[in-house]
Amino acid sequence: MSDGLARALDAEIVVQGVICVEHEGRRAEVEVVEADRLAVRVMRVRVVAGGGASPAGGAGPAGGRSESLHETATRLAEAFRGLPERMIPIEVSPTLGGAVLRSAPEDVRDREYFEARTDGRVTDLERIHAPAGEERRAVPFTLTRETLRRIVERVGSG
């Protein structure tokens, strides 16, 4: 894996707790429940892209154009391709300053789904359990270390 942020994160995941790693202006935070040699059980993955997109999509670093929030949501849907469920943008609102992606409805099982929220620069990924008649809540989910590295690399590249 050529991405320094993903490699640095993988090296730090040895115990439970919140693991934070910074590399070249980008940051990854993973709330680890447990980990072994092949997989990581997490509550949340947060990636902060360096420089990154602005919610309105305008001038980026050095006067270059950053991607719009719509472009970010589309890129994130592709970045989450390693998850066991396909992610789709369900709400994109530059006015409100954010976007929400969720597991495609046909992929939802046992009232659980993945949900990602982004403002164009900070992206959080969680697994949500939404029992009928009860409040939805985040629950732990398992990723292989390779899948976690790919997600961090792809999400952080924006």
Secondary structure elements and pairings:
Layout (H helix, E strand, L loop, with lengths): L3 H9 L4 E7 L2 E10 L3 E10 L20 H11 L7 E7 L4 E6 L8 E7 L3 E8 L7 E3 L1 E4 H12 L2
Antiparallel strand pairs: 1-2, 2-3, 3-7, 3-9, 4-5, 5-6, 6-7, 7-8
Can you tell me about this structure?
- With 158 residues, this protein is α+β, with helices and mostly antiparallel strands.
- It has helices at residues 4-12, 69-79, 145-156; strands spanning 17-23, 26-35, 39-48, 87-93, 98-103, 112-118, 122-129, 137-139, 141-144.
- The chain has one domain (4-58, 65-156).
- Strands 1, 2, 3, 4, 5, 6, 7, 8 and 9 form a 9-stranded antiparallel beta sheet that branches.
- The longest helix is centred in the C-terminal third of the chain and has 12 residues, at 145-156.
- 33% of the residues are buried.
- Mean pLDDT is 86; it is low at 52-65.
Return residue spans where pLDDT drops below 50 for at least 5 consecutive residues: 52-65
Distance between the termini: 17 Å
| Sheet/helix structural class | alpha+beta
Indicate the proportion of strand residues: 35-45%
Alpha plus pi helix count? 3
Q: How many strand elements?
A: 9
Q: Mean pLDDT, as a whole number?
A: 86
Oligomer: single chain
* Total domain modules: 1
Radius of gyration (CA) equals: 15 Å
Residue share in helices?
Answer: 10-25%
Order of helices and strands: HEEEHEEEEEEH
Shape: globular
Main beta-sheet strand count, sense and barrel state = 9 strands, antiparallel
